[in-house]
Amino acid sequence: xxxxxxxxxxxxxxxxxxxxxxxxxxxxxxxxxxxxxxxxxxxxxxxxxxxxxxxxxxxxxxxxxxxxxxxxxxxxxxxxxxxxxxxxxxxxxxxxxxxxxxxxxxxxxxxxxxxxxxxxxxxxxxxxxxxxxxxxxxxxxxxxxxxxxxxxxxxxxxxxxxxxxxxxxxxxxxxxxxxxxxxxxxxxxxxxxxxxxxxxxxxxxxxxxxxxxxxxxxxxxxxx
Length: 224
Ligand SMILES: [Fe+2]
Ligand SMILES: [Fe+2]
Hints:
Blueprint: H1 13-33, H2 37-48, H3 50-66, H4 73-91, H5 99-122, H6 124-151, H7 161-167, H8 175-223
Helix pairs in contact: 1-6, 2-4, 2-5, 3-4, 3-5, 5-6, 6-8
The structure holds fe (ii) ion (2 copies).
């Protein structure tokens, strides 16, 4: 498995847009939640569970329309959405959202589902890169959370039963163990989404160089 703190350096305009969008949302989350990690996790996991479902649905419909194999992408994305939803189901046992946070969750879902669907339809590559960067930030936040738990600034507590069952943790597992496995999940999603963006990018490059080649051949034919 790759390094937990992997960062993908932006290589083109699409990557830069994805990174700026992520940094802007990170700034909003930092300003609002500060060090309330449990509450932060509950609210942000409601957003994190959206892209996989949106991407999975759009690719599912595309596969039906084009009568084309999806190379396993749909299942990967739907599994990601399910896994993120389990993060939410776990953290709701750690922190109960306030009425304001519940309101934010509703507004955020409405805006994000629309925004992400539009981004996915315009540029699938940017959409996956955005999730790759979101997940980098998630890894970073869960590391901060873990550090506070290890230092004792945030008191540790028994792991919720739902987490013990889902990740097959020992019965005496604590919140620290839960944060560790969730952080591993986020690192996995990060790598998958960056990989998807890379593959789409590669396809685009191949398409452009093929077009250029055809143009060059046409030109040579005319000149000869
Ligand atoms: Fe998550
Ligand atoms: Fe995530």
